[in-house]
Amino acid sequence: MNTIEMYEHMGISPEVLAFGGKILDGLADRFAEIDATAEVNQLKVLAAMQKNRVAAECFTGSTGYGYDDIGRDTLEKVYADAFGGEDCLVRPQITCGTHALALALMSNLRPGDELYSPVGKPYDTLDEVIGIRPQKGSLAEYGVTYAQTDLLPGSKFDYEDIKKKMNERTALVEIQRSRGYAGRKTFTIDELADLISFIRSVKPDVKIMVDNCYGEFIEDREPLAVGADIIVGSLIKNPGGGLAPIGGYICGNHDMVENAAYRLTAPGLGREVGASLDVMRTLYQGFFLAPTVTAAAEKTAVFAAACFERLGYHVSPSSTEKRGDIIESVDLNSKEGLLAFCEGIQAAAPVDSFVTPEPWDMPGYDDQVIMAAGAFVQGSSIELSADGPLRPPYRVFFQGGLTWPHGKFGILMAMQKMYEANLYDKGLLC
Ligand SMILES: *Cc1c(COP(=O)(O)O)cnc(C)c1O
Questions:
Q1: pTM of the full predicted structure?
Q2: How far apart are the CA of 105 and the centre of ligand 1, in A?
Q3: Distance of alpha carbon 425 from alpha carbon 280, whole angstroms
Q4: Sheet holding 314-316, edge to edge
Q5: ∠348-324-187 over CA atoms, to 5°?
Q6: Which 3 state secondary structure label does DSSP give 385?
Q7: CA pair distance 232, 347, nearest whole angstrom
Q8: What is the mean pLDDT of residues 66-77?
């Protein structure tokens, strides 16, 4: 079978395939830029692995206390060098992104301190960590207060209010790089540079932490290069390269990383304990693949943006905007549109392709939510996945794609399902 026959065999009609091909013709320059970023990031990771003499013995792992775990200790040096930090904590004991962020916050704030976000409310799962929604063990319970400045229209920084809100108790500034699932824009490294230098001009010694989830390897610099003290993220997103089965990292200032290590285990033990079990090879190999895997996910997002723009939908970011993460949103304008899109993503998956995603009442949400994912690693969002609440404008958020051909197939399948349900004007495909 040739490629066209193969796509047809997989359920993509020639019209949808040809439309995708036409859209791709216009993206050559954009894809070349993405490849160029992946190239320099690949060299950065490789250089860090060579400098730290990664060897087969790093992959054996440890059990019990995990004393003298050379694989674990070397991986932390590799991460630190690749991300441009003094130090790094990378552990399978950090269970997810929220845990990594909570760890970084709780270990670097003390009773009486104030946590401050200059970019609006942080990621939803931090509500309970901070105590915006009351919860056992929150920062609020420990006497850490919270303040924020909302973004101005157009996702601009409100410098005047930032100056007003920062005070003698402001101890740590949290900046979320990615939009997450909010309506705002994702910040580029240049934008973060402006914000961080302003914050330093107001309060030079304040600790600055960037929630780097979904942002790793999108640009050729990470936020540490423009003055952040620490960056924090999840290994089942970009830096795990799809292979890491669990884990998170905290990278940057040595003292802040040490504080996190003592909080993760116990005062006095810190990073000396923590067996790496059997996951070390996947963490190394995943980090090695992460620059090109992230590039695949970014190409998928750009391709989708260009396709759905052409079909008349509102997308964000647009296909020509500079990106800061791998998340794309499309307003599908109807319940049927949202369901068909998610059905397509699910049908294109390597795992669980035979199930049909159903809307469900997710705890904490007013509206039903639909999710599509067929992932090798549960909940992994560097793998192609999509979700959205069933309410106008029926906005789907999607991200990931371990390989570009798979990402492309997923988007074609989403368009195919919508085509079959007559959800857009078929004339637009010509
Ligand atoms: C995913 C994400 C988190 C939380 O990570 P989990 O692994 O889902 O707990 C926090 N912040 C941002 C910006 C994220 O994208």
A1: 0.97
A2: 14
A3: 50
A4: 314-316, 328-331, 395-399, 385-389, 369-373
A5: 140
A6: strand
A7: 33
A8: 97
